[in-house]
Amino acid sequence: MQNITADQVAQTLDYPSLIEALKEAFRGNITVPMRHHHDMEQPGGRRESTLLLMPAWESGKAVGVKLVTVSPENGEKNLPAIQGIYILFDGETGTPKALIEAKTLTARRTAAASALAASYLARSNSEKLTMVGTGVLAPSLIHAHAAIRPIKQVTIWGRDYDKAVALALEITASGVPAQATENLEAAVKSADIISCATLSQQPLIKGTWLQSGQHLDLVGAYRPDMREADDDAIRSSSIFVDTRAGATKEGGDIVIPISTGVLDINEIKADLFDLARGQHPGRSNELEITLFKSVGHALEDLAAAQLVDQRTNNKKPHE
Fold first, then answer.
1. N or C terminus of the chain: which is more exposed, having fewer CB within 10 Å?
2. Which distant-in-sequence residues (6+ apart) come within 8 Å of 11 by Cβ?
3. Tens digit of pLDDT for each residue in 98-146?
4. Per UniProt, what is one Pfam family of this protein (predicted)?
5. By residue range, what is the domain housing residue 174?
6. Are residues 162 and 98 in the same domain?
């Protein structure tokens, strides 16, 4: 059994290949049971942590399960909020094939899923990206969006301005011009794509800030009591999700508006299955405001893990 490190994951999962692998997975026949979600109390009044178990399998080909912990206060200890491992098995024999570092796998597949959605939902000429959040997902989301749209300018906002500055320097050094800002409203109004990856429990993005033709990508706020965009953002946007089953139960950006009557569940236009399979065209015109809510899906992990395993074994993807 291979033990695949974070560096190997980063080296093997380039975004164009991973986005294509996710598209094929959403078109395919992968079985994904509802994931196990367990909230765990923490002593001393700290915010509770979460344990996630996410299984998936493709009959006769591969079986995988991701075990992840989410600890919202890890930033105070200079640790990532999301940590975990991925175990990949042979689909025919059940033999363990690989133990994969899951933090990097998760960041890359999450960013690739947002980019896959944006390939259908963001205007093809989108050049300005605003990144809301400075955590582990932020650089991945920036590079993934830049892989499918001609991003020429990135503006980064975070609660800690110094972290936003540091990330902007990192992104600029990688070849994508970036700058930090303390003015979230102005950054949102000037963007073509707004990508959010925070642990906010209160909305950060106001619908009154959104402009015609924008695409809003909501990746954080992974629990039903958390959200990154307000009701006005929901009302003014065409709503898309990664999966209907997950987004309508787990992400507060969808769960709360449904519970209060702001959003009818039937108003969700499509999920990634519909988009990848051509059952919905995505963006309908240049003036439409599109909103994509991602809560994560084990299908994405399995597709990413298979690609990592194939490439670390010097095999061609999808052979």
1. C
2. none
3. 999 998 999 999 999 999 999 999 999 999 999 999 998 999 999 999 9
4. OCD_Mu_crystall
5. 108-297
6. no
